Amino acid sequence: MLQLVPPVSKNRIISDFPKWYTPEACLQLRDHFHVQVRAACQQRSTGTIGLKMSKVVVVGDLYVGKTSLINRFCKDVFDRDYKATIGVDFEIERFEIAGIPYNLQIWDTAGQEKFKCITSAYYRGAQVIITVFDLTDIQTLEHTRCWLEDAQRENEPSSTLIFLVGTKKDKVSSAQCERTEHDAVRYANEMQAEYWTVSAKTGENVKEFFFRVAALAFEHSMLKELEKSSGSMTQIGAGSLIKVEKDEAENVKDSSQTSISCC
Amino acid sequence: MEDPDSSPELALEKDPFQLTVEDVYDISYVIGRDLLKIGSESKGQSGRISELQFKIVRVLELLEAMVNQCSLNVEELKMEKDNLKKELERVLSEGARGDAGQLNLGPDKQVIDLTDPNRPRFTLQELREVLQERNRLKAQLLIVQEELQCYKSGSIPPNEEQFVTMENGSTASSTERAAGNNEYTMIKRLFSFKPGKQA
């Protein structure tokens, strides 16, 4: 009935709100937690807290480095050899954000066209969509639009946070990087996405990026909860903040089997 | 002087490329007979005749070897020809079958080479099931690793407060912890998403 969870690793603790990569394409400019969220987090000790988790799906053309990006962050490794992802894979990353345990369920999807019929089933219920492209291949940037469309089709567009990530920074000159970033920012604005340039090989910006994803997803879902509870006049911090409602829990229970089988 | 029934002489009239070893023997018989006749008719010349006879035998031996070789070559070429003919027939019939197959295939159809060890074998549904199973096992592994970490680090003394989730989704401290179906709850923790439910 009950679970044991070890303490969150020290390098997964987020206390200050992580900064954007470029102000020209970011989801929010604020450099601190939302006042309401911060207040709610501080009151957590008065109530019991259930684990929160957000689903993240990573999409993009094959060989842009989706798996490498995830592996750099989750396992701090980089494999030079390319191995195409078969269907889907996932990682769970545990954070502590503003004192609250928070998990990211990161879904890595195959970029190969032939797996689309499988991967699209895993897009459902995503809070975060990360569209990835290769800075050395401008076509992969053009394709991010389609990838986002596919992923959004399974979700409510207003409920997802979108990121656009250019990978393999180590492979491009700074001039080329700048030029591509310029285009990418334009794409990001069209997609209402936040833009990041990273290198999984060197690790540059990878941790910063995922911290930003985690913090934004965390705040987003906290604000949603607060909205809900203030609507129903529930007392914040008295355990109802991010506690799952009984009937909701039942629904979750009912859907857990299907969640597993379709996710 | 010559017997019309025995016709070894006929061998001498043959086309050189039709000549067989038997023909060569016939020729040698004819020549030998004639040499014998000449020998009996010209006494005193026997030394020169036997010398000539020796040369003639040598020439006949050469001819025999050449005819033998030639017939062997012909035999080989014949076999080669037969093989090529069979091969041609096979390729032609395969091509015809291929054409027929393509005629029956729609634009979205694909031909599978059944002798290819890497040919597509499994269905989409089978791959889906394998992936689901893999994901389920990976989720279980993560849970077990977490729990193991707890026990290894000794960070879970029995009475310490823990954030734990009960099956009904509410939370409780470890003082309420009870033995039960850990795995199911953990899986649910990892996968408890209701689409659209959370932000």
TrEMBL record, chain A:
SMART domains recorded: RAB (SM00175), RAN (SM00176), RAS (SM00173), RHO (SM00174)
Recorded GO MF terms: G protein activity; GTP binding; metal ion binding
EC number: 3.6.5.2
Keywords, in A-Z order: Golgi apparatus, GTP-binding, Hydrolase, Lipoprotein, Magnesium, Membrane, Metal-binding, Nucleotide-binding, Prenylation, Protein transport, Transport
Subcellular location: Golgi apparatus membrane
Gene3D superfamilies: P-loop containing nucleotide triphosphate hydrolases
Pfam families (alphabetical): Ras
Magnesium listed as a keyword: yes
Topological type in the membrane: Lipid-anchor
Gene Ontology terms: cellular component: Golgi membrane
Catalytic activities: GTP + H2O = GDP + phosphate + H(+)
Cofactor: Mg(2+)
Gene Ontology biological-process annotations: protein transport
EC class of the enzyme, as a word: hydrolase
Similarity annotation: Belongs to the small GTPase superfamily. Rab family.
Entry function: The small GTPases Rab are key regulators of intracellular membrane trafficking, from the formation of transport vesicles to their fusion with membranes. Rabs cycle between an inactive GDP-bound form and an active GTP-bound form that is able to recruit to membranes different sets of downstream effectors directly responsible for vesicle formation, movement, tethering and fusion.
Protein name per the record: Ras-related protein Rab-36
Organism: Microcaecilia unicolor
From TrEMBL, chain B:
RH1 domain: residues covered: 7-94
Localization (cell): Cell projection, Cilium; Cytoplasm, Cytoskeleton, Microtubule organizing center, Centrosome; Cytoplasm, Cytosol
The organism's place on the tree of life at top rank: Eukaryota
This protein's GO CC annotations: centrosome; ciliary basal body; cytosol
GO molecular function: dynein light intermediate chain binding; protein dimerization activity; small GTPase binding
Name of one Pfam family that matches: RH1
Keyword line: Cell projection, Cilium, Coiled coil, Cytoplasm, Cytoskeleton, Protein transport, Transport
Record-linked InterPro entries: DZIP_RILPL, RH1, RH2, RILP_dimer
Start and end residues of each RH2 domain: 119-190
Presence of keyword Transport: yes
Gene3D superfamilies linked: 1.20.58.1770, 6.10.230.10
Coiled coil feature spans: 60-94
Record-level GO BP terms: cilium assembly; protein transport
The keyword Plastid belongs to this UniProt entry's keyword annotation: no
Homology family: Belongs to the RILPL family.
Function: Involved in cell shape and neuronal morphogenesis, positively regulating the establishment and maintenance of dendritic spines. Plays a role in cellular protein transport.
Name assigned to this protein: RILP-like protein 2
Lineage, broadest ranks: Eukaryota, Metazoa, Chordata, Craniata, Vertebrata
